[in-house]
């Protein structure tokens, strides 16, 4: 089997000079597939995402995309390589309007961004109404929609989402998951962290359970959902 | 805490001692004395910024108010001036205050939108002219009394040491008024407001001659310590000096400075201990919480406005005390010399370089920056000599550079400041 | 009991809360749900004194509390958490909790200077209490970590932890569950029920996780576009067509139908 | 026995700060005198004089005190030429000069209050008293038949003192001052002052300021808006630079500055030009005189100890004796050495009155064809 | 009728036009301050000295041009030299950023640390300028000083009062208007401008959007160089160049930027005029205007002055504070950290 499209292999590292948070954590996603990371709070899920995106100095391990080693690229360069990331917190430009937020997502694109923006507005209709409003004035769920919208604007080949559904209403969450499946079908690689784990694992091709910075369980979404131990300890029964 | 702070303090002490050994103890003590006062000022600012995140750029105003206290407390009253218009003046001031109180009360009344605004405006404008009508003749009469020497009401004729706490109170009173009005502002907006208020304080000091002679300055403020001349003339002291192996002149100048140093150090010690106790207590924790996140602190039941006001008053009072001490040390009040660069921004440099949020840092910053402020002048000259030493004596550039040597002073200050902050961006003794 | 009468809150021309009236019965765990941007957080902010209302009235046990500042409401026993975590980032996690209780002896300067003995005893008790709470939230290993360094979910736990430091009357929880691990959320749910039963706390809970709402809350109030759309038991609400259309969506309905089947 | 010794003189002026643009020339003036003395080789049996500069900052009393402290205790200066601004001058006097028994001669501190300061006979100044100049200025105006003026002054002890004394003299003589408005030096804009001055009106505008500070700004702004065409310029406002800068605008303006009907001023101007400093700079002549007086007094007392030579300063400055002009310091040294009396006239016609300050005779000038022309002496 | 005209002309000549001229000068300076605050998020104390440096560079080039006999007709030669001055200042600012500011940006230092660092930079620039050009007054204006002088106006209209308009006043007003329009358009409409705002809003996220922070910073400093140098040169042409005065300009410039709302170009302009007019208007003696405007019998005997000019700074600050009390983040809703 060829190497997965995106792989963060044996990642070990932490913030600044502090202790290691990740201990040989490995995450990989095939092209056009969805990988979901679950785990208790503080397990290092967000840290792992940041590591894959180059926002953390890794002491060990490597990140490769399409077989190319990108461990030493800066985040901007990874954006140029087609990666997009929605961080868990402070994931919008608060004083810019919704529309400008979306434009910033498409910063590196030179083609016409109107169609993509229309798609985002179709996905999150509320944003269309609020497009002239400063994103910082939005409700929590609306901000989250802006954040995901911004990443979609990149038209990435790899999409990384850190808890995209936190705080969004059920109806939007369903839409969002549907959309994520759609995006993946279009050949985009998706790596996401979720606490709404059951819904997320239902659509996941691969699931990772991270505990204390290391892989605890790995399997297909169904396998993990079926594992009673995993269900009880991490998915809330 | 690590060894860093104590080591830095030892290094600072060594710097001063070295200054004493190389350049003379008089100079070292002069620097030490102002260093002590600077440390107090920087503690005051640290209280506001480091503890509570209040961006007060009006330090100069509070320092000046402290200075005013020294005049109002320690100078003898001028009876002629009091007779000429003292009571009338007090009456006018009371009238002015009454107008302001009435205006504030009118403002607080919740009813009557536009009508209230009109009433308020009428009250303020009418009140202003009434106030001026009452004040101006009194002022004229007072200022006419021997203007080149007095022309003001004078002080209370009390010992100058009394003016230190009074300076604190005066500054605290001003801070209360300012805080009531302006503490709703955040960050740089509060900064410019306090800066403006400081400018207003200085404008009043410069132009209200009846109060403290304005730009004509008050000199000869009595001292809390003996005069060198008197010591030199005293038999006993001369004998003492001989015992120390010093001539009376040197001995007297040193002794006076040592006495000042003792007084200042005592004040600094008290303020430092109180600040340190406060910082380490639940009160300090509450303050830090407010600094970190006002919204959350208020939701956790902390009265943010009241606490801001409290710490603003405290910090300002400390600056006021330092101001009174400084005026005492200078022996004169010269309103024209209060410049933001020196009395506000330099103090801020002390706090930040020392390490904001840390009392020891603030104190260290006070000493170090003051030492530099004084020593960059010879350092700058020396650097300039070094640069030009290779050049021919009649070299045009050499002449040009030598002429500009005085400006090496600020440049050296800038470079050292940048270097210090480069190697410890969070200050020499960071908060944590 | 908290009553909200015809409350309005406008931002410019936008009516975020647009004439909402509702009651939170003493001793209940009331759920507050609604689409994103329905005005739930804004309503909380107005009740808790963070935002002044444009018009309308809020009372607590018959007393008018409209527009009181947050710190006074806190003293009246009204606590709230924030949807977007508001930790004290440069303080340790333990300090974040220890600062919460009101009227601590050491919070006056006089005592800070001259009442060291009294403070010490109180501090010890506070620290113990804080450690208990941290233990419960499974983050006791982080007690001495700077709160700014916590993970997203841990910050939400800390938000919740603060409400556990004091004896409150009414607690407003704004999406404490978002970003919190579901297993832990269940434990938290149990704790809420326990506080409600044993200590008589009143809760008002905003949450988008319908399992959580369904398990805990009765009644559930649904807001949409700044108004109250529906009110009733969780089961009723989940069957309400309007609510399904505006909020729950068919996806979940189908799923639930499948699950019940 | 002092042969070959070096005598140090401190020059404390605000080399940085508000007066930084005039202080280099002041220091230069003092150094002209020092060099002149050194070239004669006759000072105190061949001792050399060395100038040590220090920065008074003009505004920071504490920094100035520290700088003076260093001069006195580290460098061991025998006297201080300075300081410039009255505030720092007072501080240095009280905290350094008096305690250590060092003479100070200030070329520019004019505050009347300094006359009353306790100085143990250690403090002198070559700048004229504000009070005297006020009277002279009033006379100049009256003689020209001008009875209504607007007045602006720089908001410090110099400006305020001069404005007050002028106003009372002028009003006593029957003139009227329509407005007396302060201006701050070194500010960006003077429209507000000029607007009020223009509104109050007056035949001429009296500007008690400094040539390269607010005073110039006020005149510039008045000319621009056509508020006034004639200006009355006291000593601080007179200098070739401002005449050059403002060109025709100053034509016909007049004023007065310390100076007597002696060649002293002209001679000093020549010497200064040769030494490469601006000869018409404010207080340069006073600085020259301050340094010269101090050194001549040492010669007279045969000692560099202040307690010895402080008393000699008054003697040297005043008659009787041979008049001494700039460039004649060598002659003065010789005369003193020969035990004869001298009467130092210097660049500014120094005449000291108690307690050690310049009595000041004044030179009336008018700007004609872009030059400062002397029209008489008072 | 002519009396009314005279009153109006007097008011314009002494209050409106000088106020507008000074306001525009402050506004141009404030634009630079506000831009740095808006994008790099700190109050730059070195701005006054940056203006001084830019002006100095321009003066040196102007002298060069003048010495080879180049001039600009009735416009000042310095305007030809201006682009070169801007370029030199741009280099200085970028160099400063490289060697100094970048370090703190990487460290994510608190804004107040950057403020203090900028004070250090201020001291250094201070020294550089004084080393090179000295401390004295430098007059470098040439060309026609006036569009119309007071005397010409009187002769033209036959009124008692004159009205003078300086060419620099007009240039400054026009430049300020153009600068604010350009800046507004640039920040709100162009890609680069938006990326700069994004960078200031959320640096990490800007990185994640592929925005190159170094480029944003470089562009910011270049614009600041242009604004500072232009402001400094226009001010110097109007008054004269003196290093100390430029340092002193800093406070009113800050006041203007803040009262207008930090980070907002329109605010900077509005703030400049608020500060300038509050200085001129409140301390104005209305005597002359009233003498023209009122019938003989009502003419005032006193100056009709609310406060003496001694208090002009105090007054302008008092007005600033009052504005802030009602609009806590400035007239145009500025940012705050
Ligand atoms: N400061 C503000 N200025 C303008 N509009 C605002 C502001 N705050 C909130 N809004 C608007 O008010 C509406 C209600 O917001 P609110 O935060 O109350 O929603 P919510 O019900 O809590 O939503 P969510 O479930 O997403 O948290 C939203 O449409 C939001 O855009
Ligand atoms: N900036 C930081 N500096 C130091 N430590 C950090 C920082 N951010 C997170 N940590 C620590 O790293 C650990 C892992 O954090 P991370 O954010 O990766 O958790 P997570 O799995 O995403 O949790 P959650 O589900 O709560 O978002 C936590 O214990 C946290 O305290
Ligand atoms: Mg996370
Ligand atoms: Mg919400």
UniProtKB/TrEMBL annotation, chain A:
PROSITE patterns membership: ABC_TRANSPORTER_2
Keywords from the UniProt entry: Amino-acid transport, ATP-binding, Nucleotide-binding, Transport
Coiled coil: none
Database matches in SMART domains: AAA
Superkingdom of this protein's organism: Bacteria
Pfam family, one: ABC_tran
Gene Ontology MF: a single term: ATP hydrolysis activity
GO annotation terms (biological process): L-amino acid transport
Record-annotated ABC transporter domain positions: 6-237
Segments traversing the membrane: none
Family, as annotated: Belongs to the ABC transporter superfamily.
Official protein name in the record: Amino acid/amide ABC transporter ATP-binding protein 2, HAAT family
Automatic annotation (TrEMBL), chain B:
GO cellular component terms, semicolon-separated: plasma membrane
Transmembrane segments: 30-47, 54-75, 87-105, 117-135, 155-177, 189-205, 258-279, 309-329, 341-360, 367-384, 404-423
GO MF terms held by the record: branched-chain amino acid transmembrane transporter activity
Membrane topology: Multi-pass membrane protein
Location(s), subcellular: Cell membrane
Keywords, comma-separated and alphabetical: Cell membrane, Membrane, Transmembrane, Transmembrane helix
Name assigned to this protein: Amino acid/amide ABC transporter membrane protein 2, HAAT family
Lineage, highest ranks first: Bacteria, Pseudomonadati, Pseudomonadota, Alphaproteobacteria, Rhodobacterales
TrEMBL record, chain C:
A GO molecular-function annotation: ATP hydrolysis activity
Gene3D superfamilies named in the record: P-loop containing nucleotide triphosphate hydrolases (3.40.50.300)
ABC transporter domain span: 2-250
Keyword Metal-binding: no
Signal peptide from the UniProt entry: none
GO cellular-component term (any): plasma membrane
InterPro entries: AAA+_ATPase, ABC_AA/LPS_Transport, ABC_transporter-like_ATP-bd, ABC_transporter-like_CS, BCA_ABC_TP_C, P-loop_NTPase
SMART domains cross-referenced by the UniProt entry: AAA
Alphabetical keyword list: ATP-binding, Nucleotide-binding, Transport
Family matches, as Pfam families: ABC_tran, BCA_ABC_TP_C
Entries under PANTHER family matching the protein: CONSERVED COMPONENT OF ABC TRANSPORTER FOR NATURAL AMINO ACIDS, CONSERVED COMPONENT OF ABC TRANSPORTER FOR NATURAL AMINO ACIDS-RELATED
Name of the protein: Amino acid/amide ABC transporter ATP-binding protein 1, HAAT family
Naturally occurring in which organism (per UniProt): Limimaricola pyoseonensis
UniProtKB/TrEMBL annotation, chain E:
Keyword Transmembrane: yes
Molecular function in Gene Ontology: L-isoleucine transmembrane transporter activity; L-leucine transmembrane transporter activity; L-phenylalanine transmembrane transporter activity; L-valine transmembrane transporter activity
Spans through the membrane: 20-40, 52-72, 78-97, 109-133, 163-187, 216-237, 306-326
Keywords: Amino-acid transport, Cell inner membrane, Cell membrane, Membrane, Transmembrane, Transmembrane helix, Transport
Membrane disposition: Multi-pass membrane protein
Protein location: Cell membrane
Domain of life: Bacteria
GO biological process, one term: L-isoleucine import across plasma membrane
GO cellular component: plasma membrane
Pfam family, any one: BPD_transp_2
Record flagged with keyword Transmembrane helix: yes
Family annotation (PANTHER family): BRANCHED-CHAIN AMINO ACID TRANSPORT SYSTEM PERMEASE PROTEIN LIVH, HIGH-AFFINITY BRANCHED-CHAIN AMINO ACID TRANSPORT SYSTEM PERMEASE PROTEIN LIVH
Family, as annotated: Belongs to the binding-protein-dependent transport system permease family. LivHM subfamily.
Protein's name in the database: Amino acid/amide ABC transporter membrane protein 1, HAAT family
Source species of the chain: Limimaricola pyoseonensis
